Amino acid sequence: MKIVLVDPSRLILKVTSGYLAETGYQVSPFTDATDALAHLKDDPDVEVLVTGLEPHGMSGLDLCRLARELAGARRALHVVVMSSTSESRRIAEALDAGADDFMSKPPQPEEFLARLRVAARATAAQRDLLRLATTDSLTGLLNRRAFFETVDEMPESSVCLAMFDIDRFKQINDSFGHAAGDQVIAAVAGEAGLSDGVAGRLGGEEFALLIPQARLVDAIDLCEDLRMRIAALSFAEIHENLRATCSFGVVARGENEDVGAALQRADIALYAAKSSGRNRVVAATAPDERRTIVMDRARKPLSDESDALRDRPRVREA
């Protein structure tokens, strides 16, 4: 377990870090709360923050608040405040600031280690809850909400998005059963998870990819590689003739473009991929123009009728 320990007393830091390290904990000691917060940002594997109330740089209560904001709803972090006073007012202030626990200062080894065992149980439970809240149970990919949140957290520059789904998936379910359909979805997701990007399952047989720090041409090539790997999958244990293919719509996210608008353009390109034969990659360009041009992998325009496509009801053969 990684621990950040913050206190203005170098003696307390030295003594406490010493016996914690002997017990197997990885301790990063700081006298300055600003430096400690920067370390928390840089190392997402830190699970426990222990701070006094009066470190250098900012108060311990402010550090608690900022650390809790940093962790948000996507990171397991246990915060402990230590103080030489046990006044109920100070304890209440620490808990209101985001602390999970409060203990006396200087911390006694036996008590400190016991509280760290409590922290280990609490962070393990937090991680389990986060996994259940953000992960699609069938595929292990991000679920729809977590995928959208991940895209929102990314810088807008050099970000590409792709939507893809399994061609004629209803026929797979009708011919081989829903258990076989789930197996195909899981296999496609497994290939998507190996790509250089963040994959999510939006629902049913529909998926999305976030491709950071990529040009549109690079994202097209990445999706083409994924398309071919999916087409090469074998499902001989279900039926020797069963194959799965996917159609892709790819976009470069425009400046100040929200996630929904970018994915809508990707969906237009995906519709064009379906309409032009399936099992192919189609890109949508020019996000700031009134009309979206959809192009195939050879950069040849397939359509510039985005308004018509957008107005069409979402009824298409999968």
UniProtKB/TrEMBL annotation:
Using the record for this protein, list the coiled-coil segments as residue ranges, or answer none.
none
In terms of PROSITE patterns, this protein maps to:
GGDEF (PS50887), RESPONSE_REGULATORY (PS50110)
**Which catalysed reactions does the entry list for this protein?**
2 GTP = 3',3'-c-di-GMP + 2 diphosphate
Which GO molecular function annotations are given, in alphabetical order? diguanylate cyclase activity
What are its GO biological-process terms?
cell adhesion involved in single-species biofilm formation; negative regulation of bacterial-type flagellum-dependent cell motility; phosphorelay signal transduction system
Give the span(s) annotated as Disordered: 296-318
Ranges for the GGDEF domain?
157-286
- Top-rank taxon of the source lineage equals Bacteria
Q: Kindly give the Pfam families that the UniProt entry links to this protein.
A: GGDEF, Response_reg
What SMART domains does the record point to?
GGDEF, REC
Positions of the Response regulatory domain: 2-120
Q: Which GO terms describe its cellular component?
A: plasma membrane
Q: What is its EC number?
A: 2.7.7.65
Q: What is this protein called?
A: diguanylate cyclase
Origin species: Methylopila jiangsuensis
